[in-house]
Amino acid sequence: MHVLIADPIAPEGAEILQARGIEADTRIGLTEDELAAIIGDYAGLIVRSETQVTPRVLAAATRLQVVGRAGVGFDNINLDAATDHGVIVVNAPSSNTISAAEHTLAMILSVARHVPQAHSSLAGGEWNRRKFLGTELRGKTLGIIGLGRIGSEVARRAAAFDMRIIGFDPFVAEEHGRHVGAEIISLDAVLEQSDILTLHTPVTDATRSLIGEDELARMKRGALLINCARGGLIDEDALHRAIEDGHIGGAALDVFLKEPPEASPLFHHPNVVVTPHLGASTEEAQSNVAREVAEQIIDVFEGRAPRYAVNAPLVPPETAAEVAPYIPLALVVGRLASQMADGQPERLSVSFRGTVAELSTDILAATVLCGFLQTGTEMRINIVNAGIEAQRRSIHVQQHKDTDQAPPYTNLVSLDVLTSAGETAVSATLTERGQAEIVRINGYHVDIVPTGGHWLVINHTDRPGMLGAIGTITGANNINIASLQVNRESVRGPALTVVNIDEAPAPEHIAALAGLDGVDGVRVVNL
User: Fold this and answer.
1) From 15, 34, 259, 489, the catalytic residue
2) Is 277 marked active-site?
3) Quick one: DSSP state of residue 76?
4) How far is CA 169 from the centre of its chain?
5) Is 335 a catalytic residue?
6) What is the pLDDT of residues 444-465, one digit of tens each?
């Protein structure tokens, strides 16, 4: 086996490969043309962020089994093309955890005590102690948005400073918060109560510009904002304005929307500390990253599942024909339940009934779990790591099988979610035509074929005029309805209406629907 190392990594990576009889060639700075010309000779490829693993490169990689990203992010690797070509992509999300957590604490202390500014002043010949009056961490409230690996380690370390620790993360259980010493509360409450707010969440459609003008305005006057996670979580212009007008006391930023960043007034503000994405820049982290990627490449070569695969592994050949049709259905069940549930997840119960229960369902249970978890972590969740990630978040997962059918369905895949706010239940079936259909939502019988577009799920009281009112609001706002169905428990009793719409509703449209007489809740879900 031959592995190409295309970006600089710590020498431990090549040493581990060579110790297992795998030849490792290091060729740094290859262009796309050069990489495409030679990649056909290699079974493995290791990159960091510089080398672009494009569809053209992957098409030329006729022997390639695995791409290892020596780090967390994998934007430089085309995952769709890798999956199409049967190439597993792995990364090393845990290796820089401690380095990033420690850097976060360093940034908190630096901005709270004006360390860089005081150094520059003294190095410039000044002795001005009054100018750099700081603030203690003891007794302050630290808010953490995102209690994954890094956020949890920050919480544990902040406890040593006698800080009160609060956090928001919709994808961890309250038990996990207690385990790391953080009280899990709502996002608004975290914004309003934090003396220091630190971000540790990935950039997704839901978190992009998570901290904007409105969120900054809700923060305490004089609060400090820390971002050592991802550029794009903060509206940098809004942050500058909030610091200029004195509402935000200062900020410490290690990451930026564009890297290297363009000139910014934040860089020269006396209450701002900036560093050039140093969260993982320690000798230990780089050594750990190289080791972790090399070990996973060996796992792939030797037929074992890698710990951190970031694209969906192939279904095992011996079960592919029977299990594969249920994979999309299982994913939809998890996704829908995730978007329907409130509160912190505590237990997930995955059940299979009828003919599907006669199959080997572990891969399907993991796929349901993928659908539930995949939007709430910086990792790409798949069937390899979903169980590990749920366990780390203190979410208990159960699987049940019953070969007895539940008429009129010959097969049924269900997910029951218990959270701190209550229970959510979703069921789906695979029809005789091989089509996935959602058939139950929280006890209501529905008939939903997952398609494109957006879905409005509206809980309301069954009354005359309700559907007309819904149609009036969507029509007035140029939102086209593709389909609509009403499901009720009894005449003029509780009901559930599901509307498939072609255009995404704006927040004000959702608010208008929620304000209708008799409406108890409105959700927008994407399947």
Assistant:
1) 259
2) yes
3) T
4) 10
5) no
6) 999 999 887 799 999 999 999 9
